[in-house]
Design a protein that fits this description.
With 283 residues, the protein is of the alpha/beta class. It folds into two domains: 38 residues, no CATH class; 226 residues, Spore Coat Polysaccharide Biosynthesis Protein SpsA, Chain A. 42% of the residues lie in helices and 13% in strands. It has eleven helices and seven strands. It has a seven-stranded mixed beta sheet with strand order 3-2-1-4-6-5-7, sandwiched between helices. Helix 5 links the parallel strand 2 and strand 3. Helix 1 crosses helix 2, helix 8 packs parallel to helix 11 and helix 10 runs parallel beside helix 11. The radius of gyration is 20 Å and the shape is globular. The termini are far apart.
Amino acid sequence: MSEPYALSKLSSPELADAMEIIAKDPTQRFAVLHTLLGEGACRQIGIYPIPDGFKLSVVIPVYNELQWIREIVRRVQAVPIPKELILIDDCSTDGTRAILKEMESVANIRVIYHEKNQGKGAALRTGFQHATGNVVIVQDADLEYDPAEYPRLLQPIIENKADVVFGSRFIGDNHRVLYFWHYVANKSLTMLSNFFTNLNLTDMETCYKVFRREVLQGITLKSDRFGFEPEITAKIARKKKPAWRIYEIPISYSGRTYEEGKKIGMKDAFNALYCIVRYWLKD
């Protein structure tokens, strides 16, 4: 680890220059924070060195997100982790495609277009096939989930404690207060999923799922819509000898209303119920 600048010995202009260098250099930034806060505090808040050569694949299914797509890409790009963005447009009709066309020239962005609307699960299958990073994370194209939380979600995998990480909306972080029956449905589906998988997850339906790439390479996915969540959970749980190591990390959640563009509904809840049973009994 390189030694951080001795900031107390610098004049004001020198301090400004040093801070600019530190801000651009992840190694220096970590060294300074490690010195100021100590190793224990840094680990608690998700500040740790990223291994050399590490790359994160951020897979983003997109469908009619004209209002949010620029901002979510900006927020993902702002995360100080080497990454590639794989955006799968699932036949948007609201002008989203024109924005994605503009993004094709960005070096670490790849845009893939479905010519027929197939659903979130189908878009994720496409994205996973093109992922080249060491670790893959699912990111919705709206602003319900905050990419600033990537470092905490990645930490158990980078520290070799986990192979899969679920971000939970229900274990102690802030969230927008919205629909009671959505909460009941999410908790009920998670409980039923746990019954079949023998896991003790608190949020099976979460968007934020993080995988070592080899986990996904060993799974064949079939669900086209929101059945992806129970399907991937069941297939991860069925892996034995050795079993995949699964962690949960608390995340914040800023849910949308239906007026703001929320797409999941009761039909998807019943489909998830079907998928929980189907993918536990038969691949």
